[in-house]
Amino acid sequence: MMNQQNRNKNKEVVLEARHVTRTFEKGRFTAVSDLSFRLRKGHITGLIGVNGAGKTTTIKMCATLLNPSSGQVLVHGVDTVTNPAAARECIGLMLGGSSGFYPRTSVRDNLLFFADIANVPARERKSEVDRVLAEVELTDLAGKKAYELSRGQYQRLHIARSLLGSPDILLLDEPTSGLDPDVALRIRSLIRSIALKGTAVLLTSHSMEEVEELADSFIVINHGRMKVAGQLADVAAYAHLSWTTTFDFSPTDSYDLPAVESYVGDFGRVMSRAFGGLWRVTVMWKDSAGMTEDRIRRLVSGLEEKFRTESVFTRTANLEDAFLAIAQMSDDEEGQA
């Protein structure tokens, strides 16, 4: 067991990654490079990046499933490489996917097995399994075989497993993937309530809206390297974003993206996509000297006059805007961030 002295050391920080690097193929491929961050008690941290950015590798290193090639991951001050068993006692992990449970064993018996692995005392296992089943709304399916569950139900079973033993740290990789919207909403509420009780949560999701709703802070990585870490204002500032304007072109109009880009010029970035039979264009206005709210209003008015647009909407930049802008940044722009 991890001793009380280690648990009391810096109560706020429960997990720390220090200059962590992970390579594969005998060092030829670097999945994560020189990554450092801290998880704090009662806080939800969103780990975001495109596919292949290194998110799952990072979570696996935090969970002791992979050792760093260099650097350290510390759980309550204890190195996960030198004392992985002590670290695991404090961590709940959810990787999701279509495997991970005994398919012809009941939901309840699967969780009883994993409660044993999680070192839940024998006399408490039944009540602990009942608790996590209720939290993910699987009580009525406790007698079902794992292979009989739907994708969303199986995902909830993964979450239930991660909650066994009330871990100090919860590592959640795409926790609402495959869930119906109403169930996903309840799972988000559950994650929030778990954090309010003091658990540190590291969360990945393809839904930027979900991460922004849940997380207190964010880590943006690309090609295994950290781009920026902090609150939404920090991420938006790194992306040089202030406001965004979205408008639609009717298919009957002359859609001229180069003309829009020319009009916007150096004041922002322009993105477009097909949307419900229309062309939807988003202008991400740069947060630079002279780009006041009044000036953006004048530029938007000019857009409406110059181009035949519909459904014009301007708002402050959100996490998805900042993430997309960072993904498009050139090396020169990153050097100025």
TrEMBL record:
Q: Which Pfam families match?
A: ABC_tran
| Record GO terms (molecular function) | ATP binding; ATP hydrolysis activity
Keyword Nucleotide-binding among record annotations? yes
SMART domains hit by this protein:
AAA
Cellular localization per UniProt: Cell membrane
Q: Which residues form the ABC transporter domain?
A: 15-248
Has the keyword ATP-binding been applied to this entry?
A: yes
- How is this protein named in the record? ABC transporter, ATP-binding protein
Family label: Belongs to the ABC transporter superfamily.
Kindly list the biological process annotations in GO that this record carries. response to antibiotic
For this protein, the record's InterPro entries field holds:
AAA+_ATPase, ABC_transporter-like_ATP-bd, ABC_transporter_ATP-binding, P-loop_NTPase
Q: Which UniProt keywords apply?
A: Antibiotic resistance, ATP-binding, Nucleotide-binding, Transport
**Main location as per UniProt:** membrane
Bilayer topology reads: Peripheral membrane protein
Alphabetical GO CC annotations of the entry are: plasma membrane
Report which superkingdom the organism of origin falls in. Bacteria
For this protein, the record's CDD domains field holds: ABC_DR_subfamily_A (cd03230)
